[in-house]
Queue: 2 jobs
Job 1
Amino acid sequence: MRSLEIVDVTKNYGEFRAIKGVSFEVDPGEFIVMVGPSGCGKSTLLRSIAGLEEISGGRILINGRDVTREQPSERGVAMVFQNYALYPHMSVRENMGFALKIAGATRAEVKAAVERAARILRIEDHLDKKPKQLSGGQKQRVAIGRAITRSPEVFLFDEPLSNLDAALRSQMRVELGRLHAELSATMVYVTHDQTEAMTMASRIVVFNAGRIEQVGAPLELYNRPANRFVAGFIGSPRMNFIRARVLALDGEYATLTIAGMEESLRLTAPGVSVGDEVTLGIRPEGLGEAAATGSRIRGTVAVIESLGRETLVYVDAGVLRSFDSESQDGYLAVHRSRQIDVKQGDPVTLTLDPETLFVFAPDGTTVRFPER
Ligand code: ATP
């Protein structure tokens, strides 16, 4: 039996359809991360699972039980919010035990559940403090602890790490992974941060504009994105996108021309037609240094980010620009997993190796993946 089934769910706000018929299933013990840009509907769906929003169509099942019309407290879910939502006048112990107490648990049961959760989250020393005496990370642990004490059938997380600084966020990612393994619980987690999705998820659900673009394991989405949206969303820095035109076809092979490059490229691209404007995709680590094979791209170093064990270089390649990339400003992003000795303005030669290229058809569908 599935832990959670989302069946053709729609949600309208007046005339506006925030969720446009979404279906997926979650197996027991999975850590599902719903990811997508701001406004894509992921929080609305999570809140709908929790029962905080009434859906306009479809059904939601938890462990086979249709909960679509049930009250939030009847659904067997516990939700952790971005802003912690702790009761300021209660101690940590009281915050964590409150829901159980209201549900009629005995004092001994509440005490045992709170102490177990505190042990799992390593906050035993803070049980008698008030929320204002805690750091952001500690508050978020208390919020998670409050969910754990309820032993829910499904845990729901709504951007729980967004208010934490970068170091704490990466520590909490590891902790949440450990928590998931320790509890063997089903978790559904919403974030706009693809790093959180990649590092924690058993499977990622990629949302865009109220629809699902793709569902898959993190590396499946990274290596085999179904379309240009997923390819651009998963991976940091983003995939470089280059416009190309289909000049000729020869069986499964297409000859492509790229503005700003003298040589044409020949590669497999099933399903495209002569004259099509296609998109080439290349990951920052796929842009090779000058080599014997592949087409050369000459450019200059525009920006360098030396991160210690790795280096990101943004290359200005003249008219050959990466498009659809707010963060890269038209530069080609290049990744090297080492320190390199370059400075702004240095000339560089990169290689566009057909083996490392994705090709997206005019409608965005991936028609070719790199050869591995
Ligand atoms: P974010 O990461 O910014 O929270 P999201 O993907 O979680 O984005 P939702 O909060 O689910 O997005 O919102 C989806 C869409 O529904 C948005 O366009 C939003 O403006 C709209 N929306 C959400 N709540 C309401 C509401 N109560 N009334 C009207 N429109 C709403």
Job 2
Amino acid sequence: MSRTTIDFGIDLGTTNSSIGVIRGTEVDIILNNESQPITPSAVMVDKGGRIIVGRSAKEGLMKDHENAFCEFKLQMGENTEYVFRRSGRRSKPEDLSAEVLKSLKADVRLKLKEDIEAAVITVPAAFELPQCEATRQAAQQAGLHTTILIQEPVAAALAYGFQTESEKVYWLVYDLGGGTFDAAVMQVRDDEIRVVHHDGDNHLGGKLIDWAIVEDLLVPALLKEHRLPDFQRGNPKWEGAFHALKCYAENAKIRVSRDEKAYIDIPFICHEYPKPFEFELKRDDVERLARPIIIRSINLCKKVLAEKRLGFADIEKVLLVGGPTLMPYLRNLLSDTNDGLGIPLSYTNDPLTVVTHGASIYAGTKRLESATPIKAAKGQYVVDLEYKPSGPDTEPFVWGRVRGYDGEIPDGLTIEFINTDCRQQWRSGRIGISPDGTFRTNVLAEKGRRNVFSIELFDARGTKLNCQPDNFAYTVAIEIVDPPLPHNVGVALVNNDMNWVLEKGTPLPVRRKTDLKSAFEVRKGVKEHIIKIPLMEGQKARANRNKYIGTLEIYGDQITRDVPAGSDVEVTIHIDQSRQMVAKAYIPILDEEYELKFNKNGYSDKRNQEEIAKELEIQKKRLETVREKARGISDGDARRILQQIDEERMIQDVEKSLAASRTDRDASVKCEKRLLDLMSAIDEVEDAIEWPSLVSNAEREIEEERKIVNNNDFGVKPDEKRLFTDLEREVRTVMDTRDADHLALKVRELERLGITILFRQPGWWVGCLDHLENRRSTMSNQDLAGNYIAQGRRAINTGDLESLKAAVRQLWGLLPPGDKDREIFSTVGK
Ligand code: ADP
Ligand code: MG
């Protein structure tokens, strides 16, 4: 019997992958050639030039890191290449993922004798659009011509909820993998399961624990015994040694999830230094190192819940997904009522295969569309069926049309559906087919199993006819409501603001249009004139803190007439259920449409190591400044974010991955990402403590300067009035961008304008003298101060303005450095 639904589900994991198939309502995880349910996502080229995937490749990495790679999933969609030293083969991350998929397909071929061309593949909910695109490419390359992507947490929840009897509950999917973390709140209600909210981090996972073991424990111990110059992660000379150490660390880490201690016994460190090394890894130590990583994941869970105003008590259970959730310490910390969430945990499904499980269930609900419509052979009829292969309904609706070889539909045709496997065989009875070949009916399905209905077609005399297909399947099960968009998607504007076209959480598929104005003029035929519409994905208010996806670009030499600045530009974004995106820009005055090119170079403004190091220093200083300021302010938000920066060791994280990024490309992507996280976190603190006061300051300043400019006695010049209007507008624009430095700059300009006007007013200088006389006690030299005050008084009496100014200036100079009054003088100069 040929398949009518996709049935195969794949978890293409960062660390491990696996494939399953739905059989009825049960899922079989297909064991690989080594009889293992999971296959490490590692690829190696062996001495014979053959590609090897799985455990051997992962082990190969320990001995021969120049010919084996893993963790390439995190690079999907980035412009990186992996070069196999031995064969010179160059592979993109999606090529390596394709090898993993091919290997899973080969296991299916071996075990089930099926050559599959369609599958559901899971992706982390935090995956960005370019990464989804790369996943589709990998699948295509592996011969999976039909792929449906679903989010890993959705798959996991489906594995738990497929046949659930629970009603009206919330679950939290906690998925900590090798390199990524996802937290998703799911709601199960009225036979539907939906993602209510989610958040994730593509650079948080078990391997951070492995590296912490290497860097904090193994390396110091090793250096005590051996004199190895510059033995650091990131030094290309020791790359092999560090790969090996990490693999040993991981194995030992897994062992201490069960045993108190694990013995690491390395026969030789690396080719360059073939000496043995031994170390005893204690569970306590691993727990200490794992803590900040787990805390980071818990913080994300708290954020996800808080953003939906859900309390811990609202969540029925936490579904554990991913290898690291096998650690007893993680489970304790997570369920702890103080440090963790205090919500009961659920791990009845194996955390390592639960995602494959759910993916396969989902695959069972997706119809397998044949690429070319079946043609009826002579004497045969084709039944084009319309139905949902799965749903909560026990009497689902089925309709369709019958087609014959010559297009003729003889009179009196009938069709019958028979549910053969149920306790009491059920028959629909013969249903009449109308002259145009159509029919409609409801069938009866049983809960708890896959119902296979045979299809029988009869002519007017009751003779059974040959029809294709002759069966279809239906399962009574919970339904996944349209998956939500995991990140906002929108256009970056010139002032570094975002115009979010699609909000996170929007059900997919979706199509939405936004109207923009072009910022610059584009002349016909001038190649250098470009309308650029950068599309970004993320959540951050400042455009450059988000992930760049690609640009809609319209060049001067592509257009038929000039496009003045301020012209209308309509941008339409369409994203389907598998997060495939099409973005187009339509320019009405040209009546032309342009399509987005996906970014092939990773981050457009990707920084190099030196720039990251420099930026990090700037951010460290910034952090110290905001920390200092936050001390005097009782802002809960500011304190919370600062605490998060410390607990998650954000600075150290950037520093470590910066060091590692010299040899490890994953570390380099992560480094940039964590730096952005850090910057955004500091932005948030800054905003929380400073912004409201900065804005009210700016408002006050505008009003003060307005009074000066509008004072008819001051002889304000027309261009000064114009300057004020311009500056006021600029200050208000900057207020919207939340750019503190820029705002300070603009406010300073306003201030300067006011003071320039005041400087021309004799009365103002008189007022200054009075004011400074009151401040005499703070001045550095009392005798001098007395002299200047006397000079000023004399000047007022004789009407000598210049002498008065000179006296006031001298008095200013006697104020202590940094004094506010003295600053006014320095802003306007002498
Ligand atoms: P991915 O989703 O990235 O493919 P997995 O869910 O397969 O990841 O988890 C892989 C991670 O789980 C690795 O970091 C591995 O070291 C870790 N891991 C696997 N088993 C255990 C265990 N028993 N104790 C602790 N960590 C484990
Ligand atoms: Mg996973």
